[in-house]
Design goal:
By secondary structure, the chain is an alpha+beta fold. The protein has helices spanning about 25-40, 45-60, 110-125, 140-145, and strands at about 15-20, 65-70, 75-85, 90-100, 125-130. Helix 1 packs across helix 2 (about 45-60). The protein binds coenzyme A (COA). Coenzyme A (COA) binds near residues 36, 108, 133, 142 and 143.
Length: about 160
């Protein structure tokens, strides 16, 4: 199988490793974020911004990023940032940037990336993880549903600071 060939759906992840991301992974991760931000209508891909954001995140003590590697290639990623939740009276996690390269989907990699983030959360006293998903992103919503993530009654609002909206 070449690096770009499609894994048969259902073939599991025995030759895919999940590990913490390093600076060397930033270019490949920025490419994956380009795939993600082309799907999400609230965001626009900008490779330089994604590289800068990833470098900031990797330097932050309250953030972690994981990559899925197969044969030396980064084929998936996820990030988790810790905030304080007054509702929980404890740390909570914001999960973002979950994306698997299209030709490696439905092989358990997305689920394995979520598990890595949840293992870290359990070990760090994080009581709840939450994420935002595009309301039109049915495959992602099906994925989260299948893995027992629950929808909330919250809506996302945003306001830009220091520039025109
Ligand atoms: C969402 C995403 C990360 C899932 O990654 P993945 O590696 O394909 O997911 P998994 O193989 O671990 O799937 C686990 C289960 O979720 C469900 N699932 C995953 N993708 C699905 C889809 N497209 N349709 C329906 N169910 C799906 C299935 O129940 C699957 O188990 P199965 O394959 O044994 O039936 C991947 O589709 C992706 O990168 N999408 C584009 C980026 C994106 O939308 N990210 C989420 C942003 S909020």
């Amino acid at each position: 199988m070449t690096a770009t060939s499609r894994m048969p759906p259902g073939e599991r992840t025995h030759d895919v490793g999940i590990c913490l991301a390093t600076d060397d992974d930033v270019p490949a991760m920025a490419e994956l974020l380009g795939v993600l931000f082309r799907i999400e209508s609230d965001f626009a891909p900008d490779a330089e911004k994604q590289r800068e954001g990833l470098r900031l995140l990797l330097r932050s003590s309250s953030a972690r990023a994981w990559v899925a590697r197969r044969g030396g290639r980064v084929v998936g990623m996820v990030t988790l940032q810790t905030v304080v939740s007054t509702a929980e009276g404890a740390a909570a996690g914001i999960l973002e940037d979950l994306v698997v390269a299209p030709e490696f989907r439905r092989c358990g990699i997305g689920g394995a990336l979520l598990e890595a983030a949840m293992d870290y959360a359990r070990a760090s006293g994080i009581g709840r993880i939450q994420l935002l998903a595009d309301a039109d992103n049915e495959p992602a919503l099906d994925f989260y549903r299948a893995l027992d993530w629950k929808p909330t009654n919250l809506v996302a609002l945003r306001r830009r600071i220091g520039q025109k909206i």
